[in-house]
Design brief:
The protein has about 525 residues and is α/β, with parallel strands linked by helices. The strands form 6 sheets. The chain has a 6-stranded mixed beta barrel with strand order 16-20-17-19-18-21.
Length: about 525
């Protein structure tokens, strides 16, 4: 997030898209509801599926799935045409505006209505509401990124925010909500194929030299592979061994038949986890890891806030904290890691990572600190880009609509989207062990529009088979108008009806993010159940 969670209550308007916030990020959802219901702030919700947040929206735009660039370009078109854009901000802080304006010129409200289904007049009203807000925040999540066009979707959001001068101010910003509690922290300290800690490029010789001297080791000169690329190359026999930590790709990755085949074809598989997951059952070696309650360390949350995690109980059984397992394994393999504590590791992070340079345990006793925090006397940074962008001027991107990898056709006429529900979490490894959570959401249900169900002679709570080009699952139906006609929504937490048996292997060409939000399926009623 460029801004802080608390900033959402400073915004005059919030544009929420691709985020079922009350179910996927309920605490942040409460902040948004408070901003709207108590502080009388404005809210625009853009989502193909009717979510709780639409009840609070001043304007609800309901596009067809996968058409985000069209409506984002359409908002920009209206704002530029009406002269509502922040001309001083654009002139002083951005570049490539003319090319951007020329691109969005053709995205008239009428064309956007044809592409997205959003009524032209509603698009105009939303454009005025966003542009007239003194401080407007954009909040998005994986409904924006988990598409073939995910990277361009995010760029289109950045375009809109810069157009109205909403980057670098309190109550504004471009605010992605992270999917798990330490995704931000993992990325910050180098769990990416192309960056060393602090988003320092592995291809930069000076950066590599700095880390080589700090670690007394040679580093690769080229970026590594993303998760989707790793699985693909394992399936092709190019990768012989994998070490998987805290991940359950046999539930969470797309096209699970291919994932299983790739993992089973490995010569050696190691899984490090707190439970014996579906993936761990395939492993040659399982390393039992300690849970968050059994270890010390830090997490960095969605607003870039580094926070202490304190051990509550001793590790159970033979489990150990991840850092100790890695250190001991590395030492046995010939590269000695002699860390004595997570604090010692944090000191090393601060020494080689400028944005973490001033973050030390003694400063985290009372509260967390938001990076960048380059020095010991720096207070942290609640709002990014206040004084300028990292690259100098903000770059407007010229973007066109990109079709999804797979769309409905005569053989597979329905569009399936996957996601989460409030009472379960990710692959269910932890949440489905909770009796209370299982009582609240005990089994997987596919959401279907009642008109579609009537045409298929499908009753509420009856069983159907959902079939894609890659696999099929049997689930009960939940009839609801939350889904548009021709679309289905299926949670991915349940191994007995794993949604990712259906999803397609298409990825964003830049980020390699799987296209979880769109795949083509057909429905077959199951009688006699």
């Amino acid at each position: 997030m460029t801004n802080s969670i608390s900033d959402l209550e400073k915004a005059d308007l919030i544009l929420l898209t691709g985020s079922n916030t009350t179910e996927n990020h309920p605490i942040i959802g409460l902040h948004i509801i408070n901003a709207v219901a108590r502080l009388r702030k404005k809210l625009i919700v853009v989502d193909p599926r009717v979510i709780k947040m639409t009840e609070y929206a001043d304007i609800y735009l309901r596009p067809r799935a996968g058409t985000d660039i069209a409506w984002l370009n359409g908002l920009a078109h209206v704002i530029i045409k009406e002269g509502w854009w922040d001309k001083d901000y654009v002139r002083e802080r951005t570049e490539n505006f003319d090319a951007f304006a020329k691109t969005v010129e053709k995205y008239t409200p009428e064309l956007v209505q044809m592409i997205t289904g959003i009524p032209a007049e509603d698009l105009k009203k939303a454009a005025r509401l966003y542009a007239e807000a003194e401080r407007a925040a954009i909040v998005y999540c994986m409904g924006i990124t988990q598409h073939r066009s995910g990277t361009d979707n995010v760029k289109a959001i950045a375009n809109l925010a810069m157009l109205c001068g909403n980057v670098g101010i309190e109550g504004g910003g471009v605010n992605p909500l992270r999917g798990q509690n330490n995704v931000q922290g993992a990325c910050d300290v180098g769990a990416l194929p192309d960056y060393l800690p602090g988003y320092q490029s592995v291809t930069d010789p000076a950066i590599r030299r700095k880390f080589e001297e700090a670690w007394d080791a040679r580093l690769p000169e080229e970026p590594g592979l993303t998760v989707t690329e790793i699985i693909k190359q394992a399936g092709e026999g190019k990768i012989k061994a994998l070490y998987i930590m805290g991940e359950n790709p046999l539930i969470s990755d797309p096209d699970l038949h291919h994932v299983r085949s790739a993992l089973e074809g490995l010569e050696f598989l190691v899984v490090q986890d707190i439970f014996l997951t579906q993936t761990a059952r395939l492993a040659d070696v399982v390393l039992p890891a300690a849970s968050y309650a059994e270890k010390e360390g830090t997490f960095t949350n969605t607003e870039r806030r580094v926070q202490r995690v304190r051990q509550a109980i001793s590790p159970l059984g033979e489990s150990k904290p991840d850092w100790r397992i890695i250190s001991e394994l590395s030492s046995k393999m010939g590269y000695k890691m002699s860390y004595e504590s997570p604090e010692e590791i944090m000191e090393e992070i601060a020494s080689v990572t400028p944005v973490y340079g001033g973050i030390h345990y003694d400063r985290l006793e009372e509260a967390g600190i938001q990076w960048p925090c380059p020095t010991l006397d720096h207070p942290g940074t609640p709002v990014l880009h206040s004084d300028g962008f990292t690259r100098g001027k903000g770059l407007f991107h010229t973007l066109e609509v990109i079709p999804a990898s797979e769309m409905p056709d005569d053989d597979y006429p329905f569009l399936l989207s996957t996601g989460r529900v409030l009472y379960q979490y990710n692959s269910g490894t932890m949440s489905r062990r909770s009796e209370g959570l299982n009582k609240m959401y005990p089994e997987v249900m596919v959401e279907m529009n009642p008109i579609d169900a009537f045409a298929l002679d499908v009753d509420d709570h009856s069983f159907v088979r959902i079939i894609s080009r890659r696999g099929e699952v049997k689930v009960r139906v939940a009839l609801t108008e939350r889904c548009q006609r021709g679309t289905l929504f299926l949670p991915f937490h349940f191994r007995e009806a794993a949604a990712n048996l259906l999803t397609n292997p298409g990825v964003d060409p830049v980020s390699k993010m799987p296209e979880y939000k769109i795949c083509a399926v057909r429905i077959r009623p199951v009688y006699g159940m």
